[in-house]
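thread from #wetlab-drylab

HS: before we spend reagent money on co-crystallization trials with magnesium ion, can we at least see a predicted complex? here's what I'd submit
DV: go for it
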Amino acid sequence: MRIEIKTADQLKLMRRAGLVVAEGLQAMADAACAGMTTGEVDAVGREVLARNNATSNFLNYGSEYGVGFSGVACISVNDELVHGVPGTRELIDGDVVSVDFGAIIEGWHGDAARTFIIGEASDVDATLVEVTRGALWAGIEQMRAGGRVSHISRGIDDYVRSQPRRYGTLREYTGHGIGSEMHMAPDVPNFHKRGPSPKLTSGMALAIEPMLTLGLHQTSVCEDDWTVVSRDGSRGAHWEHTVAITDKGLWVLTAEDGGEAELAARGLEFGPLAD
Ligand code: MG
């Protein structure tokens, strides 16, 4: 499967979509509180899309194969790991909430996720969230022209294995190429795997998205055909960014600052394209 190479103008449209995604995730994280339903959190995301004249790549996703997704965000709580369907579930103190959100601007896609905790967090949950975020940046750190997708997978895997505690890494769900569609070649696994792996070049964009649990990696899908839960009931976290490789370096399209601060802290080149 060929990997789509974007022109500078296409990456700039993806940046516009990415900024809408960043704004929506921030608005949903700011709004979420005990007593609010996941459907109400989703509605905050809908408002942000409407305000920016963006459309949703999540809404109705998969309808050609079965039950289309009914929200603009996947909202997954505690042992729900990914693809949680927003609805009547009320958030309570201590809930670990993963929100995955996307936007389309002029046909170009952005996709990102973050996890936060409602009210007081236990130490173990707070560390889970921080380690998953660290795993995302450990993957981004390995993304470069001339490198391979497997370097990203390995970066994530090595980082997770280096933690004092063990975490489960989801295997059936991976990061992915993104651009004129949300899910494109190549897959970006979150664990190291032997074998050939695609080469990375300038103009590529990938959604990197580690999904970790406090227990084992095995999952099952709920009766709504969407919500993915851990089989052992353990809680999970999920962080994701859409990241582009430009001639100058990396551009984290779904980070408000384009990734500038985190990239600088890791000694990596920040490569935004000027308007
Ligand atoms: Mg994604």
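DV: The CA atoms of residues 21 and 190 lie 22 Å apart.
HS: ok that's useful, forwarding to the group
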